[in-house]
Amino acid sequence: MSSDKHDIDEILAEMHSQLLSYLKKSNISEPLIIGIQTGGLWIAEKMRSSLNIGSPVGELNIAFYRDDFSRIGLHPRVTPSSLPFEIEDRHIILVDDVLHTGRTIRAAMNEIFDYGRPASITLAVLIDRSGRELPIQADVVGKRLALKTDEHVKLLGPEPLALEFK
Amino acid sequence: MTSNNIQLDNNGRLKHFLTTEGLNKNLLLNILDHAESFAGVGDRAVKKVPLLRGKTIVNLFFEPSTRTRTTFELAAKRLSADVLNINIAQSATSKGESLQDTLRTLEAMHCDMFVVRHGSSGAAHFMAKHVSPRIRIINAGDGNHAHPTQAMLDMFTIRHHKKDFSRLKVAIVGDIMHSRVARSEIHALTTLGVNEVRVIAPLTLLPARVETLGVHVFHELEAGLEDVDVVIMLRLQRERMRSALLPSEQEYFHNYGLTEKRLQVAKDDAIVMHPGPINRGVEIDTHVADGERSVILQQVSHGIAVRMAVMAMSMGSLVDKQEEKT
Amino acid sequence: MRILIKNGRIIDPANQLDKIGDICIADGRIVSILKGGDDFTAEEVIVADGKIVCPGLVDLSARLREPGQEFKATIASESMAAVSSGITSICCPPDTQPAIDTAAVAELIQQRAEATSKLRIFPLGALTHGLKGEHLAEMHALKRAGCVGVSNACMDIANTDVLRHAMEYAHSCDLTVHIQAEDHFLSRNGVAHEGVISTRLGLPPIPETAETIAVARALLLVEQIGGRTHFCRVSSARSIALISDAKKAGLPVTADVGICHLHLTDMDVDGYNTNCHLRPPLRDQRDREALCQGILSGSIDAICSDHQPHDEDAKASPFSETEAGASTIELLLPLTLDLVSKKKLSLTEALSSLTNKPAAILGIDAGTLSPGRAADIVIIDMEKHFSVDQSCLISAGKNTPFNGWELNGVVTNVFFSGQAVYQNND
């Protein structure tokens, strides 16, 4: 079962408005935006254009930071991370598609700190689903879903974006 | 054949990296792709990724080599592994401890990977055959047999400049007979599907039946360099003069030394490579070594990324489903 | 002890005999053959229905490692292995430690063999003192001490003048010179046949010419001197051609081949299989076929085990650092019979190259079943199969290249001078 395009647009609009008010409340100006490959990157692009952020989106591939390397080995296809800006003392918006266990975000933050020390990191996700295994919460959430452990949601894209439930 | 399968785990993933021979094209390309990803790590504030945190890698060198050992050490450290350098003079092993005993001792220290350089062909195979199954072996050069990471960093450099392998003509010049680099390059190039591999050397520096490796043989440098895209020069050891394989360095340079003039018959955009260390004025003219077509220094920096890739891939095959249960 | 071997297929190549019948043994000697079994009162009767009965085998070359390398094997351990394969006469090369260049060493070896009461050992004496290739050994004394020939084993005689004089002196002692032909300058530090495999594996190569040039050198000296000369462990097609021409020209030369070279090629070295590190090296397929052909055509006279048992450490190193040689003594017979099943040799040719022909090269009274001779007899069950299991070898050397091979032909009884020295009724 897939949601229709209309749903995604609504969720994106929700993210956009939450993000705006969060940045305002936190007094953040000129943030940088970083998407986690691959779904997070698509959402980050949408946010960048709707928020009119000048710098390009930073791409993060967390393959080298995953905590399951010793169990499943190196991921077969790895496109390198690319942060085309200095992150030292900058405010970062970290974007992902689905926040689930929290392990991906932990890995992403570890990697970001290997590039420098940001002033702050704001976490924005399209979907916040149940099943957290680490104390990580998003600041901006497009939609919350309560799913059982054997239920999964996946973002398809980049054009058109759609959610797939299994 | 077992000689090749010993490199792969049950799922066809790279387990030990002993030779480029017998690995399929996809796996070789995979190494290059991973190396591409690791290449960026050296440009960051923290030049490390935590992939091999808590792992211990032993550089086990039975032949002295600062260059190769250093790049392996850097690669291991950039993967956050702990590194132990052990240099064993080969004479010491023949006096006392056998290679097998050395292996057992290191195994008892709970090391995870051995990077081995040894003067005898097949030494890395020997270790892979006899080591406990949780330990990985990377061949950093065995006798005249193989030096697969050097070959792969050369492939990385070639792809970096030429993108597509299929149309390339590659010439390897010099002491093919005693070169483990040449053998590994030949296997890698033919597997990656280049148009033509040539070897250029006098008969005394060519191994018997070298054409069976899939190369064309030239004894004359100009004829061999004609129209090539890549020239790989090999280092000439002084002992070749002593063992009656060559008359003198001067005569060698006169006939097989790479000069700007000789390079003119190659393609205009041909690149010049050398695994180092260079003997200027013996196999290559200084102007060529430092010239605009030379990519010799790039080879060195690519070496770290390629070695990171190989180490991460082989360590990543550590736990397969069968081993996990036991 | 009076023994009757009943109703076996008796094959005695020396007498061109291949018939079903009986053999009667009394006081360690053969009393009668084929006939006479019905009137013979025996203390022991062995029914050999469907089995082959042939002379005890003569192995032209086996290292027993004694004296000097008892940590690898001993005469006692290897005798057990040898008789299990039907071997009752062994010729051992002089490269023991110390070398067989004095009567004392030659006598010691024969005494140790006598003590086993299982087989006879015929030593080869050293051709040069200490096998150093410089001074002549005391060949007369060695001959008196029981040496059946002289040889420099695998050691080099670089100086052709020394070789010439050694061959001349041996000739005047009426001793056969056994030559393992190798030009040590050409073979240098080589460990594998120069060809596709040595190139791929990066192993130091031994060119074919390392053997052929040395064969040619020795043949030209034989032509000049005329003494009996035996070429040991010939490995290449070209060598066979040279030897074959020499034989046609009437030179007194013979040749043997090691059993491994009839089954394996340099391809078997692939994967750095140290059990296939042999000297001379395993050569290519063409050479292997030529060696089989050489036996058929008579260019090669005998097949030997070239048995070289090693301790585990000797083979547990990178290929070029390992010691050469394979443990083969107890597989000599089944591996030779395997050539018969593969239709490369006839049964009589195969057995001849293991019995009367090697005996003739050594000039010893063995390898045939004529009445009056010492009763060295083997009974073979050709129907029985077995699978080679390295760990189950009787020899102290477990270094076999044939681990896992399926072979047929199992020795069920061996008699040495009329004594039952081996029995296998499994």
Compact summary:
The complex is a heterotrimer of chains A (166), B (326) and C (426). Chain A has 166 residues and is an alpha/beta fold.
Account of the protein in words:
The complex is a heterotrimer of chains A (166), B (326) and C (426). With 166 residues, chain A is of the alpha/beta class. Helix content of chain A is 30%, strand content 25%. The longest helix of chain A has 21 residues, at 5-25. The mean pLDDT of chain A is 89. Chain B is an alpha/beta fold and 326 residues long. Chain B has two domains: 25-145 and 301-320, Aspartate/ornithine carbamoyltransferase (Rossmann fold), CATH 3.40.50.1370; 148-299, Aspartate/ornithine carbamoyltransferase (Rossmann fold), CATH 3.40.50.1370. In chain B, α2 packs across α7 (148-162), α3 packs across α14 and α7 (148-162) crosses α14. Chain B is globular. The model of chain B is unreliable at 320-326 (pLDDT under 50). Chain C has two domains: 3-53 and 373-384 and 405-423, Urease, subunit C, domain 1, CATH 2.30.40.10; 57-362, TIM Barrel (Alpha-Beta Barrel), CATH 3.20.20. In chain C, strands 1, 2, 3, 4, 5, 17, 18 and 19 form an eight-stranded mixed beta sheet that branches.
